[in-house]
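Please decode residue identities from the backbone states below.
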């Protein structure tokens, strides 16, 4: 699937010239006449796809583990409602996902866009009529991504439901011990 995603951006037109579609067939495409340019672009795209997959999957798992462990270590000892626990756990997840997952992805995307701009400025753009023959290159991947997203959301729901079913531990009140009356000593 990894190589298919990269190869989907490189197509051949009717004359056999290789076309690079960095943003899909509805945006500007570029002719690649040099094999060295094709190698550079494929390496750049592979690096970007690998980094995005790594930060998405790794960031999701680490953020999820932080939120679940925070919930298990901290919130179970507090006498708060399930809704408040879920809200606080969700806040921990969102904050850690912003730092661990989304910020690195934005940095990778920014570097990728700058590198593409530098490489593609020397390439000849493809006419819009030629791009229409390629159709939607992302259609085979869209269903897989949506299925993976649905499974991830379902997994999160199951774990949070299991945590919510656990009984909230309330602090035990100390029994009222009465002291025996003391006799005054003489």
């Amino acid at each position: 699937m990894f190589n298919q995603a990269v190869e989907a951006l490189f197509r051949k037109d009717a004359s056999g010239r290789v076309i690079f579609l960095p943003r899909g067939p509805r945006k500007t495409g570029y002719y690649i006449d040099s094999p060295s340019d094709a190698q550079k672009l494929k390496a750049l795209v592979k690096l970007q796809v690998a980094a995005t997959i790594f930060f998405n999957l790794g960031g999701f798992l680490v953020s999820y583990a932080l939120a679940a462990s925070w919930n298990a270590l901290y919130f179970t000892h507090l006498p708060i409602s399930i809704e408040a626990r879920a809200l606080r756990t969700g806040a921990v997840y969102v904050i850690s996902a912003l730092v661990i997952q989304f910020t690195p992805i934005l940095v990778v995307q920014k570097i990728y866009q700058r590198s593409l701009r530098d490489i593609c400025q020397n390439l000849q753009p493809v006419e819009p009529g030629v791009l229409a023959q390629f159709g939607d290159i992302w259609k085979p991947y869209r269903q897989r991504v949506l299925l993976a997203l649905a499974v991830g959301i379902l997994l999160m729901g199951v774990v949070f439901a299991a945590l919510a079913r656990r009984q909230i531990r309330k602090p035990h009140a100390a029994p009222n011990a009465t002291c025996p009356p003391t006799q005054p000593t003489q």
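Observation: The CA atoms of residues 46 and 100 lie 21 Å apart.
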